[in-house]
Amino acid sequence: MFISKTQNLGLKSFRIESQNKKQSSMKYAIGNMTFCCGVKNNPKQLSDILFFSGSFNPIHKAHIFIANDIKEKLACSTVVLVPAWLAYHKNTDTNTSFEDKIEMTKLASLNLEGFEVSDIDKRANIGNSYSYNTVKRFIEELPFKSNGEKLNFLIGADAFAGLPKWYNFHELSKLVKFIVSSRFGQTFPDIIAKKLKNEIPELNYQIFNEDIRTEISSSQIRKLIQEGKSTEEYLDKNVLSYIQEHNLYRGGVK
Predict the structure, then answer these.
(1) Is the residue at 149 inside a domain?
(2) Could you count the other beta carbons within 10 Å of the beta carbon of residue 215?
(3) Quick check: 40 and 114 in contact, CB under 8 A?
(4) What is the tens place of the pLDDT at every residue in 38-57?
């Protein structure tokens, strides 16, 4: 990947292009954040943003499908994808760097309107990644004030159920609205949410049932790669090429 800079109406503009693919997207920078240019992609308030943090090791099609679907349902202008720096609850023995995860996430979202990738998790944490630190820093760096609004924080149903174990969960709940992605037929997110609401009055959440035809996890994808099996069904072709070219996850993909 290479970045060529231009100037546009006083804002820093960037064209991100692949050396091997005929793809590009224009971006402009505001403060420390970068947002895609477009009709709606200039967020003015927190409710315009869907914040999606994850290990993304690697990012796969289900991640993108869920984020894009909920973006449309919430009428957000911007999805900020945030690869985890060092996820304290994940113990993955891989040969991927944080920079690899950033690049794969960029490639997976390259042609999607309103999708952005941020390295905020690395800048907000010393050592392990904690969502409270990351979200607090993210909000502080925005070019506008929150005015009491909460950030839309996308989270899976299983992670939502484990929120009481998260670092500074009470304070995090004051900053975000939890946007819970649940599979059709799952009932426990509603049960958990009601229980958490009784314990933490400031908890704000919304549950979406997502129709995911093929369920897959990043750990399962890594296992397939290690076994030399195809992952084309689950990975964006550009992400797959990156994995192959950099021999990630202890070997290429056949």
Answers:
(1) yes
(2) 9
(3) yes
(4) 333 578 899 999 999 999 99
